[in-house]
Amino acid sequence: MHLIGLREMDRRQMIGLLDRAEDYLKEDGTVTTPASRRRELEDTTVGLLFLEASTGTRVSFELAARRLGADTVIVTPQEGERWREESATDACRTLAAMGVDGFIVRHHDRQLPHMLVDRLQVPIINAGNGSGEHPTQGLLDALTLRRHFGLEKDLSGLKVAIMGDVVHSRVARSDAHAFSKLGAEVLLAGPRMLLPSGDRGQRWPGEMSTSRKEAITWADAVVMLPIAQERIHGTIIDPHDYAMDWGVDSSIMERYLDREAVILHPGPVVRGVELSDPVVDNERCLILKQVTNGVAMRQAVLQTYFASASLS
Ligand code: CP
Fold this sequence. Notes:
Layout: H1 11-22, E1 45-50, H2 56-67, E2 71-75, H3 85-97, E3 102-107, H4 112-119, E4 124-129, H5 135-148, E5 159-163, H6 170-181, E6 185-189, H7 198-202, E7 207-209, H8 212-218, E8 221-224, H9 239-246, H10 250-256, E9 262-264, H11 277-280, H12 287-311
Parallel strand pairs: 1-2, 1-3, 3-4, 5-6, 5-8, 6-7, 8-9
Helix pairs in contact: 1-5, 1-12, 2-12, 3-4, 5-6, 5-12
């Protein structure tokens, strides 16, 4: 069993993972591993193949694996090194031959997770494939919204704007699939050049807007996106202009954001561009809750995909 994207996952599976992640969260919202679950992945080795930059996701998966009793092996590139898909596949096959039980993979190429699924007999979890998907981020964002708004099962009735560099963002894609399948209304907002268009636009769930004011005023929650400069070919986004037109500072927040509405960001935040310092530190900005919920969600994912593999 593999987790490559949320486009392929149905609502029932998503709710199952959200409910399982709750097992790893205390009433007060902190993350925990109940004693009965600390050996769930004992005798399991999780391979972390992070061949593109990551801090949050890699550490979150590593903590999640260790707290369930697993061993981890980590592969990261040397400075300036760029791993081709064939080298990544060979590395996974070699590690699998040494007894590694499955892989969490981040790579710039959208096809790599699919290649690994074809060539290996162990679970593959996509931790970000270029501008493809980032399924555990979509799930943890859904969990964060469900908990914040006190919703029982799904996100029905919620209006969520996903704003910024939508077209290059794997987080935007996974969030849009998760939120819409869970019953939320989704609005994709950003400058025209950073929104999907034509056939590509039709594959995205949700309406589109090129108005920051419209998106923020409409939303119960705004997911701000980082600019994926490494995936924008031929165009340089000026950070100052972007902050003026699409960033959220205290003044924008006070003027347009509903008093009950919240802001999310997958991190890492470029402070002063996407969000100003006071907004990042405001209690209506849920970034640290996302980070905490991320560990719980990754525990749920590892338990689901790795523990069941070891039984089969
Ligand atoms: N949210 C996220 O993908 O962060 P990292 O790039 O630090 O893993």
